[in-house]
Amino acid sequence: MKVLGIDIGGSGIKGGIVDTRLGKIVSEKIRFETPSPSSPKKVIKAIKKNIIKEYDWNKYVGCGFPGIVIKNKILSAANVSKKWVGVDVAKKISRKTGCESYIINDADAAGLAEIKFGAGKNKKGTILVVTVGTGLGTSIFVDGILVPNIEFGHLKMYGDCAEKYASNHVRKQLNLSMNDWTNRFNKYLKYVEDLISPELIIFGGGISKYFDEFNHMLKSRSKLVQAKLQNDAGIIGASFYTSLTLK
Questions:
Q1: In sequence order, what E strands does the chain have?
Q2: Whole-angstrom distance, CA of residue 124 vs CA of residue 182
Q3: pLDDT per residue over 6-36, tens digit each?
Q4: By the number of CB atoms within 10 A of the CB, which of 5, 22, 83, 94 ranks highest?
Q5: pLDDT digit string (tens) for 97-134?
Q6: Which CATH number describes the domain made up of 109-232?
């Protein structure tokens, strides 16, 4: 089955057509900057123009969104406009594009992809997937089963949420060296490990492609590995989630 996967982020929106049996993007990827302000109207209009029309797509769409998602409705919005809260995004995208659409938390999407096709394939126990980008996305799996909408990027650290302390966006914003940034991220890892004690941590998101440059500076009690699908995981996972929902 082929599904168009879309990954909405605070700084960029990515899309690609995915073969959900293989867990692979089978088209050219499209990426563009998230519109400002990042309201539902502006973002969906940009998705229609830059992705749906570019692919001439009229079939199923799976979309990862940075916030709590329950039954396609947004209950929180991280790093995008608060106007998303309360919106049934699937219904809006379907109405605007004519494509039947399904929505999932973006980190849950990335996690599903890694568990089904990537670094977590056939692994048992408690697995934490962390996507490091504009924010810190997290997803938890117990023996391959997703525990949805775990927002560990919003844990409190030093008077603010963790992603305001240890995300890749903060690293760039403060011009932190890799050593300084990994010191921050290690504190975040310890915090999370003290809460759930995972057997495996999968490190994903945009910065994961440079994993070899800073891997030796990361400290965790758990085994920590690079995400195999890296920054494609959100697109692949949103598509895979859609294929599961349709069964």
A1: 2-8, 12-19, 24-25, 30-33, 61-65, 69-70, 73-74, 101-105, 126-132, 136-142, 145-147, 156-157, 160-161, 200-204, 223-226
A2: 27
A3: 999 988 999 999 999 999 999 999 999 999 9
A4: 5
A5: 999 999 999 999 999 999 999 999 999 999 999 999 98
A6: 3.30.420.40
